[in-house]
């Protein structure tokens, strides 16, 4: 999915949920910025996000590394 489409969909969903364009815009920017910066390319095991994904999806350690 193109990044611009993803950002638009997130902003639309947040706008509908909150009713605030300001909240939707700033929150979407915060969500999409790391993707643009490439900071989610490879999560190492010392990253909190790595463990959150593992626990949330109930994955084994090896599965999470492969994701």
Q: Summed up, what is this model?
A:
The protein is mainly α and 67 residues long. It has helices at residues 3-18, 21-37, 48-57, 61-66.
Describe this protein's structure:
- It is a single chain.
- This protein has 67 residues and is mainly alpha-helical.
- The longest helix is centred in the middle third of the chain and has 17 residues.
- The chain is 73% helix and 0% strand.
- The chain is elongated.
- It has one domain.
- The protein contains four helices and no strands.
What is the strand and helix layout of this fold?
Layout: H1 3-18, H2 21-37, H3 48-57, H4 61-66
Helix pairs in contact: 1-2
Low-confidence stretches: none
What is the ordering of alpha helices and beta strands? HHHH
Based on secondary structure, the structural category is: mainly alpha
Largest sheet: none
How many β-strand stretches?
A: 0
Average residue pLDDT: 84
Shape: elongated
Distance between the termini: 17 Å
Number of domains: 1
Radius of gyration: 14 Å
User: DSSP strand (E) fraction?
Assistant: under 5%
- Give helix % range: over 70%
Keywords for this entry:
4 helices, 67 residues, mainly alpha
């Amino acid at each position: 999915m193109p990044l611009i489409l993803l950002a638009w969909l997130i902003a639309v969903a947040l706008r509908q949920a909150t009713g605030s364009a300001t909240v939707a815009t700033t929150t979407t920017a915060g969500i999409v910025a790391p993707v643009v910066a490439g900071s989610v390319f490879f999560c190492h095991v010392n990253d909190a996000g790595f463990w959150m994904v593992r626990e949330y999806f109930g994955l084994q350690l090896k599965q999470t590394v492969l994701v």
